[in-house]
């Protein structure tokens, strides 16, 4: 692992610049009326007023790139809608704020002890080749005046083919990256210097980090968010085997303490199925085992006899589950009354839905948790009644992840 602790302070120039578009200073944009309370800013690039690149950063952000290609709006790769931002950094680019970077930055105006939500999606371009030299693709920079210097307290980076988080100098490996694929990220941070601090991170709905305790080193303001490409080795002369980096970024939502996961998640609807790694049931007919409910085949099923027969789906990790997709055997001929319970540990379950299937289709039907989304791993489907007999028979079932 290469080290990158010797970084220059980066925010000072940007923090004092004025955002100008076409020579006019822009007032801070107000959140769209449809955004929930607590969402301070949406930057999904769909609003024409936000498409100021490459001349200037969008309203409420500052510019840290020096070329015409450093940050541009693209329609070629988007996570949502028609537009995203494309960052490109070349080894030959001029130095910006002390290093090689193409970044868009929040202003340094976050209050002390702030609780913040950050939702966004990143796509490393398909040309993103393995390099022994790391780069930061999102960072939370300490405040510019009166805060401890050095490395930022929190950063998301790619290194040696893997996603990693640098949290106050401690590295958290989040697994290999896949070039060309969008990854949804949600960060929830309570910026504190005492034990009341909190860092939570979700990657494609899976909760991959949960830490309590101090989250930054202090100062009069909480850290501010930056995103793009920051590759310090290209400035220091450390070995690097690539000369160009391109990534796309979209669906940024910044929330305050009033926000919740679903307010900032790039996944805007509860429609994405979660993979199931294991199944079990309270009872089953030998020819219709629980695994038949997740084999992708609507002609095979789990069947268990008795009111209260239950099928449990294990997603293999704690995820932000929001609903379920359930297809019933003979679902077009009979309704089924059932309940959903969810659990993080497989021991303690919470009821998240109960009701009746339509009785009009054998296709999967979607239900949404009446509790809202939850960080859980196990989903239990408990059968109560149908008008024909006392058999629970499910052909396919999946949890849905936000
Ligand atoms: Ca977009
Ligand atoms: Ca099946």
Automatic annotation (TrEMBL):
Residues 259-402 form the F5/8 type C domain. It comes from the Bacteria. It comes from Streptomyces ficellus. Residues 1-34 form the signal peptide. Coiled coil: none annotated. InterPro entries: FA58C, Galactose-bd-like_sf, Polysacc_lyase. Keywords: Signal. This is F5/8 type C domain-containing protein.
């Amino acid at each position: 692992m290469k080290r990158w602790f010797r970084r220059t302070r980066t925010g000072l120039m940007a923090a004092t610049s004025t955002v100008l578009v076409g020579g006019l200073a822009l007032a801070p944009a107000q959140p769209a009326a449809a955004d929930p309370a607590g969402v301070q800013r949406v930057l999904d690039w769909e609003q024409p007023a936000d498409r100021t690149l490459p001349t200037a950063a969008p309203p409420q952000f500052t510019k840290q790139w020096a070329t015409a290609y450093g940050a541009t709006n693209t329609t070629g790769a988007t996570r949502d809608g028609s537009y995203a931002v494309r960052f490109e950094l070349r080894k030959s680019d001029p130095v910006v704020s002390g290093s090689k970077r193409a970044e868009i930055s929040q202003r340094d105006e976050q209050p002390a002890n702030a609780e913040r939500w950050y939702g966004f999606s990143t796509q490393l371009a398909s040309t993103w080749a393995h390099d022994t030299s790391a780069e930061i693709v999102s960072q939370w920079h300490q405040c510019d005046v009166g805060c401890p210097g050095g490395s930022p307290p929190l950063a998301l980076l790619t290194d040696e083919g893997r996603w990693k988080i640098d949290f106050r100098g401690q590295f958290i490996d989040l697994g290999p990256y896949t070039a060309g694929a969008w990854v949804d990220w949600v960060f929830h941070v309570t910026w504190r210097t005492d034990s009341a601090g909190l860092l939570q991170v979700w990657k494609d709905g899976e909760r991959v980090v949960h830490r309590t305790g101090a989250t930054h080193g202090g100062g009069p303001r909480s850290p501010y968010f930056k995103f793009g490409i920051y590759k310090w080795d290209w400035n220091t002369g450390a070995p690097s085997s690539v000369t160009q980096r391109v990534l796309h970024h979209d669906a940024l939502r910044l929330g305050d303490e009033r926000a919740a996961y679903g307010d900032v998640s790039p996944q805007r609807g509860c429609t994405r199925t979660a993979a199931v790694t294991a199944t079990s049931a309270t009872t089953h007919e030998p020819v219709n085992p629980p695994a038949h409910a997740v084999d992708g085949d609507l002609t095979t099923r789990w069947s268990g006899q008795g009111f209260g027969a239950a099928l449990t789906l294990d997603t293999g990790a704690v995820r932000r589950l929001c609903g379920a997709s359930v297809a019933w055997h003979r679902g077009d001929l009979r309704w089924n009354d059932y309940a959903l319970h969810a659990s993080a540990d497989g021991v303690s379950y919470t009821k998240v839905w109960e009701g009746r299937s339509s009785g009009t289709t054998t296709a999967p039907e979607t239900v949404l948790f009446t509790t809202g989304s939850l960080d859980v791993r196990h989903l239990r489907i408990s059968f109560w009644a149908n008008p024909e007999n006392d058999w629970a028979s499910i052909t396919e079932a999946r949890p849905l992840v936000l």
